[in-house]
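Batch manifest line 343
LIGAND: adenosine-5'-triphosphate
JOB: complex structure
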Amino acid sequence: MTKVGILTSGGDCPGLNAVIRGAVLKGETVHGQEFVGFLDGWRGLVEGDAVPLDRSSVRGLSNQGGTILGTSRFGPYQTPEGGAQNIARTLDKLGVDAVIAIGGEGTAAASKRLFEEGIRIVGVPKTIDNDLGRTDYCFGFDTAVEIATVAIDRLRTTGNSHKRCMVLEVMGRHAGWIALHSGTAGGAHAILIPEQPESIDQICAWAMSVRDRGRAPMVVVAEGFTLPDMTEAHSHKGLDGFDRPRLGGIAEILAPIIEERTGIETRATVLGHIQRGGVPTAFDRVLATRLGMAVTDLVADEDWGHMVALHGTRIARVGFDEALAHHKLVPQERYQEMRVLFG
Ligand SMILES: Nc1ncnc2c1ncn2[C@@H]1O[C@H](COP(=O)(O)OP(=O)(O)OP(=O)(O)O)[C@@H](O)[C@H]1O
Ligand SMILES: O=P(O)(O)OC[C@H]1O[C@](O)(CO)[C@@H](O)[C@@H]1O
Ligand SMILES: [Mg+2]
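JOB STATUS: finished
ARTIFACT:
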């Protein structure tokens, strides 16, 4: 019987538990696989910290946010106990034949390296940012967009009452998909994303034209957005577990500038981790369940070095190298399509 270890790595994301449930249910019933879960991402794999996972441990999981396995930004090459050779020894000791790594582009990059160094590993793409290449959507994105859209709807009623400009900051380190989709759904008057610099003059011009027709401006900004004179995304919260700047706070930079330049009273709201928490939408539950089920086929076929992906409505397989070669940013024309409605 093939024994499979599952881990969740990187930022958490609604739908992770549905993937775990889908994999265990199909893996057990169709392929006769047995499962363990590594705790806290790569840490559990490196330290051999695993718990048994069976049908009863995944019962009722598809609607639960977060991950029952825990996650982290710990790296498989970060400590002397890490690296492919040590990990292979740990897997042997635990009797684990294959690894399923559920994560974003960082997790896929680590998985690719482990695969190239001989570890039998496959992947499931996850990120609320939706910026992983060669998959049309990642689970978690739809939930994040839904939460951000509700936030816009709510900010608009209070903004309208006070005739204020409301600036909502959503996540999106390199890619503005959450801002673009929630801003479109919520009818924002300006959407600011990392891929497209906009000047403060332009942002204020949009806000004033909204005010001039008697409306309250609604601006949605992704955390990774930069003004033309900024060399990098705004960060004042130190570094994350992988030594990257923790983003967040650009809305609080923009709001006083907009207020000063336009004379419109302005408020900033940073949505933060609210958009990563709570129950996944039905779309994300379905996608996550299908991906979890499909990844057990990769294990059964020994298709190491690949991850499952969504192509249209079909679940496909792509190599880690192929997925990593294509960072899915918002294309210029997709932004321009919505930009004509700004102001
Ligand atoms: N090129 C790499 N080689 C080895 N390990 C890596 C590499 N890139 C990332 N990692 C490790 O994998 C972990 C997970 O990556 P990361 O923190 O970027 O999350 P992610 O999987 O991309 O999800 P998220 O969408 O939250 O960013 C990192 O914290 C780091 O420890
Ligand atoms: O959990 P953390 O480390 O605060 O991660 C925040 C980052 O993770 C993401 O939610 C997903 O990559 C980004 O949008 C954001 O920059
Ligand atoms: Mg990442």
